[in-house]
Amino acid sequence: MTQYVCFSIVLGTAFLCSKTEVRKVNGKKLNEIKKVLMSEKGYIRIGSHTKERLRVRGYTKGDIVSCIMKGRLCEVQYGYNHTIGQNVFSYVVEGKDSSHNPIVVVLSEEGQSQFLVVTVMPPTDRNRFFDCIG
């Protein structure tokens, strides 16, 4: 049986787990992001650089919402967030935009129920994404 490395955000530790457990963890985090999107508890913000990239790539805020609501969490990354000055988890969500075209949204976790949209892009890497363009 294949084992995967999982990270406990609460405990700050790594442990081996199954593919089913990875899906559960990813599903819980995506549900948390959806709850933030649909409620007034927390925020999902878009920085000025990301807004400009959205415009250049032809995406809208509605495309981000569509991707989050109908997509799947396909990667969890850990890296430096320049805005808050610390290492945090980032979540790569693969889904469809409001025109049903493939789209990827990357969100960085800034705190409890607080997220920053890092980038929005078309999926082009067939090794990372299920539904690619081109």
Automatic annotation (TrEMBL):
Keywords carried by this UniProt record: Plasmid
Q: Which InterPro entries match?
A: DUF4258
Q: From which domain of life does this come?
A: Bacteria
Write the protein's name: DUF4258 domain-containing protein
What's the source species for this entry?
A: Halobacillus litoralis
